[in-house]
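Exercise 7. Predict the joint structure of the components listed below.
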Amino acid sequence: EVQLVESGGGLVQPGRSLRLSCTASGFTFGDYAMSWVRQAPGKGLEWVGFIRSKAYGGTTEYAASVKGRFTISRDDSKSIAYLQMNSLKTEDTAVYYCTRDSPGYYGSGSYPYWGQGTLVTVSS
Amino acid sequence: QSVLTQPPSVSAAPGQKVTISCSGSSSNIGNNYVSWYQQLPGTAPKLLIYENNKRPSGIPDRFSGSKSGTSATLGITGLQTGDEADYYCGTWDSSLSGGVFGGGTKLTVL
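Solution:
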């Protein structure tokens, strides 16, 4: 059974940093790209970014709203994907989900597996 | 402002059929597969449709998907009160090199 478990959320002040983790199980983690999707309170889904598998260089893509501030990385030996969030803004307040993406170079936009999400609140 | 456009809300009576539209462009829906998600309050989204019209195991055939050009449609027949939820379309955008979602549609079963 595929499971994704996010952790690391919490309350953080504007301008500070936070790192989220997504621990995966039930599939060969290294074979898949992993995406992060967020949802602000009462709002819709927003794709944040993704990291390709090592077969495609482990390269990353980001939404314009987070590019330059957020960094996604992965540790295939531990089956963990990370979302490093720097220079946080109040508008980054959201539930952050990790999802399993495609095994290929391009993202799929199709996410059959989601974690439970972790809430990040950016407030002074 | 979402890249994909959905109606904010739709409604229908129990047992009836409803469709939800999702409009995009050639860089997203026009050249990539579309997925649909159901999100019940307080829960993570659930994949209903992938590759335009395929249903994951366990999704009833009351849910269907279609795509034409730069638009896609989710259909739900035999509406039940348990279908009340937010529904999102999503796909990959080749120009943005990123995933994109619609703004979501709230379904009310009257």
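Discussion. The beta strands of chain A are 3-7, 10-12, 18-25, 34-39, 45-51, 60-62, 70-75, 80-85, 94-100, 118-122.
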